[in-house]
Amino acid sequence: MKRTLLAATTALAMVVAGATGVNAKELRWGFQTDTDSLDPHAHAVTFTIGFLGNVYEGLVRRDADLKIEPALAESWTVSDDATVWRFNLRKGVKFHNGNDFNADDVVFSFKRIADPDAQMKTNVASVKEVRKIDDHTVEIITSAPNPILTSRLNSVFIMDKEWSEETGSTKVTVMDQDKISPAGQTSMGTGAFVITDRTAQVKTTLVPNKNWWDKTQHNLTKVTMTPVKQDSTRVAALLSGELDMAYPVPTQDINRVNSNSGTSVLVGPELRTIFIFMDQASKNLFGTDTKNPFLDVRVRKALYQAINIEAIKKKIMRNLATPSAIMISPKLFDRASDFARYPYDPAASKNLLADAGYPDGLSARFDCPNDRYVNDEQICQAVTSMAAKVGIKLNLSAKPKAQYFKQVLNPKNRDYHVGLIGWTPGSFDSHNVVTNLIASYSDEKKTGRYNLSNNRDDRIDELNPMIQSEGSKAKRDAMIAEVYKRVHDNVYYIPLHQQALAWGKRDNVTLQQRGDNVFRFRYVTIN
Amino acid sequence: MIAFLVRRLLQAIAVMAVVALCAFFMFQFVGDPVNQMVAEDATDEDREYLREQLGLNDPIPVQFGKFALNAAQGNFGVSYQHKRAVSTLILERMPATLELAVTAAILAALLGVPMGVYTGLRRDGFASKVIMTLSLIGISLPTFLIGILLIYLFAVILGWLPSFGRGEVVQVGAWESNFLSASGLKSIILPAITLALFQMTFIMRLIRSEMLEVLRTDFIKFARARGLSNRAVNYGHALKNTLVPVITIIGLQLGSLIAFAIITETVFQWPGMGQLFLQAVQVVDIPIMSAYLILIAFFFVIINLIVDMLYYVVDPRLRVDQPTGGGHG
Question: Which of the listed CATH numbers 3.40.50.1220, 3.40.190.10, 3.40.250.10, 2.170.130.10 matches domain A2-227+508-526?
Answer without folding.
Answer: 3.40.190.10
